[in-house]
UniProtKB/TrEMBL annotation:
The keyword Cytoplasm does not apply. It holds the Pfam family Bac_luciferase. This is Dimethyl sulfone monooxygenase SfnG. CDD domains: Alkanesulfonate_monoxygenase (cd01094). One of its GO terms (molecular function) is alkanesulfonate monooxygenase activity. InterPro entries: DMSO2_SphG, Luciferase-like_dom, Luciferase-like_sf, SsuD_RutA_monooxygenase.
Length: 371
C-alpha cells in the first residue's frame, strides 16, 4: 500500500489578515464621549490608509449609513470614500459597504468595474442587508422582512458575480432581472465579496455565496460555534467561505493601562445614544425568526462599541493580544477587523508591536508542526 503524498493536508495555514474599520462616519467606533483623536474627514482617512498599508494591514472596511443616529451625526458615502482611499494608497484593499435597496446590482457592478480599472483592482464589496428601519424609512426605501432582506442580498451577490464574469448575463430572480447584459469593461480582477450578519439567514447566505463572512465581536467559544456552523454548512454546499471577526483593540504597554482606557470609554458612554441604539438593534437582532441576529444578546456595555467589539477581548499588552489573535486563528478565523480609539496612532502601534508577534507565533506553530 503506497503512502499518501506528503503534501496532503500539510500546506501551512495562511497568515491571519488584518483589516481596520474606516472611520468615515463621525464619532469614531464607540458611542462614548471619551476624547478621541479620530476624525471622519477624508484627509485624516487618507493618511490613516497610508499608515495602515505600511503597518501590515491588508484591508480597510468603509461603512454605509444614510442617516444620523447614535453618535454618528455625519457619514460619508462608502464607494466614493473607498475610491479616494484607493487612489491614495498602493497596496491596501478597500471593502466598500453596499446596501441592497438603495443600490441596485447593475449600478454597483458598473461602479466597481470602473474603479477597479482606475486603481488596479483592490476594491471589494461588503453586502450588508440592513438593520435600521428608520434609515430606510427616511430615504423612502421599502423595508423588507428580515429573511427577505437576505433573499434579496443573495440575488444581489449572484448577480454581481454573473455580471462581472459572464459575456451575456441573464437572470430571472424575484428581485432582479437581466437580459443578455454585457458589462464592459469587466473589473481587472474578480472583486471579493464580503457580507455581514450573525443570524441563520446571514450564515446560510455566507455558506452558499459569499467569499467572506464578517461577524460581530464575540467570545472565543462564540466565534468557534459560528465558524463550525458556517464551515459545516458551506462544505455541504461545496463552498468555501473565509471568516472575519470584529474586535475593538485597546493595546497599551501594560494590561492595566489598556483596561483603564476601556473603563474610560464605558464611564463616558453616552447613555441615551446607547439605549436608543440598543432598542433599534434588539429589534433588528430579534427580527430573524430564530432570534439569533447580530445583536440579539448584546448588553448595554457591549453596545458602547457598535459591533460588540469588546467581547473579542483584544485588550491588553501586545503579547497577550497577539496570543488571543492566534487563538482566534486556531478556531478558524481568517481575518481580524479592528476598531481603535485614536486610529492613526493605534494602527501604527498595532503594526509595530502586535503584528510582528503574531507573525512570530505563526512561524513557531509551523515549525512545531513540521518537527
Ligand atoms: C463587520 C460588519 C460590518 C457591517 N457594516 C454595515 C454597514 O456599513 N452598514 C449597515 O447598514 N450595516 C452593516 N452591517 C450590518 C449587517 O450587514 C447586517 O445587516 C446586520 O448585522 C444584521 O444582521 P443579522 O441578520 O445577524 O441581524 C455590518 C455588520 C458587520 C458584522
Amino acid at each position: 500500500m503506497s503512502a499518501a503524498p506528503l503534501s496532503v493536508g500539510r500546506r501551512p495555514p495562511e497568515p491571519i489578515k488584518f483589516a481596520y474599520w474606516v472611520p468615515n462616519v463621525s464619532g469614531g467606533l464607540v458611542i462614548s464621549k471619551t476624547p478621541q483623536r479620530t476624525s471622519w474627514d477624508i484627509d485624516y482617512n487618507r493618511k490613516l490608509a497610508q499608515i495602515a498599508e505600511t503597518s501590515g494591514f491588508e484591508y480597510a472596511l468603509t461603512q454605509i449609513r444614510f442617516t444620523a443616529g447614535y453618535g454618528a451625526e455625519f457619514q460619508h458615502e462608502s464607494v466614493s470614500f473607498s475610491h479616494a482611499l484607493l487612489a491614495a494608497t498602493k497596496e491596501l484593499n478597500v471593502i466598500a459597504a453596499i446596501l441592497p435597496g438603495p443600490w441596485t446590482p447593475a449600478l454597483v457592478a458598473k461602479q466597481v468595474a470602473s474603479i477597479s480599472h482606475f486603481v488596479g483592482g483592490r476594491l471589494a464589496v461588503n453586502i450588508v442587508s440592513g438593520w435600521f428601519r428608520g434609515e430606510f424609512h427616511a430615504i423612502g426605501e421599502p423595508w423588507l422582512d428580515h429573511d427577505e432582506r437576505y433573499r434579496r442580498s443573495e440575488e444581489f451577490i449572484r448577480v454581481l458575480r454573473g455580471v462581472w464574469s459572464e459575456e451575456k448575463f441573464n437572470f430571472a430572480g424575484d428581485f432582479y432581472r437581466f437580459h443578455d447584459y454585457s458589462l464592459k469593461p469587466k473589473p481587472v480582477s474578480a472583486p471579493e465579496i464580503f457580507q455581514g450578519g450573525s443570524s441563520r439567514a446571514a450564515r446560510d447566505m455566507a455558506a452558499r455565496v459569499s467569499d467572506w463572512y464578517f461577524t460581530n465581536g464575540n467570545t472565543l467559544e462564540g466565534v468557534k460555534a459560528q465558524v463550525d456552523d458556517i464551515r459545516h454548512k458551506a462544505a455541504q454546499n461545496n463552498h468555501h467561505v473565509k471568516i472575519g471577526v470584529n474586535a475593538f483593540a485597546i493595546v497599551r504597554e501594560t494590561e492595566t493601562e489598556a483596561r483603564k482606557v476601556l473603563d474610560e470609554i464605558l464611564t463616558h458612554a453616552d447613555p441615551d445614544a446607547v439605549r436608543a441604539f440598543h432598542h433599534e438593534v434588539q429589534n433588528a437582532g430579534n427580527a430573524s425568526p430564530e432570534r439569533e441576529g447580530n445583536w440579539a444578546k448584546s448588553s448595554f456595555e457591549d453596545l458602547v462599541q457598535y459591533n460588540d467589539g469588546f467581547k473579542t477581548n483584544l485588550i491588553g499588552e501586545p503579547e497577550q493580544v497577539a496570543r488571543r489573535i492566534i487563538e482566534l486563528k486556531r478556531v478558524g478565523v481568517d481575518l481580524v477587523l479592528l476598531g481603535f480609539l485614536h486610529f492613526q496612532e493605534e494602527v501604527e502601534f498595532f503594526g509595530r508591536h502586535v503584528i510582528p508577534l503574531v507573525r512570530a507565533l505563526e512561524a513557531e506553530a509551523i515549525a512545531d508542526a513540521a518537527a
